[in-house]
Amino acid sequence: MNEPSSTGISSARIWLLAARPKTLPAGAAPVLVGTALASRLVDKFNPLAFVATMLGALLIQIGTNLANDYSDARRGADTEDRLGPVRVTAGGLVPSRQVLIATYATFLLSVLIGVYLISISGWPLLVVGILSILAGVLYTGGPRPYGYEGLGELFVFLFFGVVAVAGTYYVQTVSLVWEAVVLAVPVGLLASAILVVNNIRDIETDRRAGKKTLAVRLGREKTRTLFTLMIASAFLVALVPWLSGALGPAVLLSWLAVPLAIGPIKTVVNRTDGPSLNECLAATGRLQLIFCALLSVGILI
Fold this sequence. Notes:
- It contains 13 helices and no strands.
- It is mostly helical.
- Helix 2 (25-42) packs parallel to helix 6 and helix 2 packs antiparallel against helix 7 (178-201).
């Protein structure tokens, strides 16, 4: 039974806020691309492995979001004047201990799924799983959180791009090819672009809290340019396997997502208000998911 809290928000709604559903495409998208590539290149598709990989990726994303919610509140980065949606720990919607327990529980579920993936794919998946969970926890946690040093976008690119796509391909095939690494680049760039929007929105409150994100270090104008370059580069790099002859021209289907990129770029370049940038964050997540779905279809045909 979803009883309302003292704020009038149901407990289910509060935990949905904590999970940050607008960021979940970053977990789902690479699994689509890696699985499609495995199906195309080596005719391998294990449905149960696909479902397990998808659930594991989403749980790691949610666990990272919960860890971020908890750690940012403790470090004073989530203040009342932030422009983004309310954070459940800093907003007093959930006691910090409950958020911490939920973080542990979410990562534990991802570990249990990982045990199955390791059983079918071998020990390299153990290394990937450990590193992915550590990256999620240490983003804003630990003695020297890398998210506070301007390295958040790099780690998102690596773990929600390169590691996620290549790892998914490996789960299906127990092998690795260069195409998986190349196609991980646009996936990682778009995942990182989601974080760029978040950090542009929070640039002033992060600066005051001593959180030196990449947006704080570069400044608003240079970060806007970076966002535009990341989006454009994603579309260009997606063509490399076709231009090299490894895949067919159907990968051009991913370019059907170009109209979805125009709105986020315009918003990031021209707007500074919270509501616009919050919608831009969601739109960038949709762009990544649709781009990757189209790319996956293009890989398969």
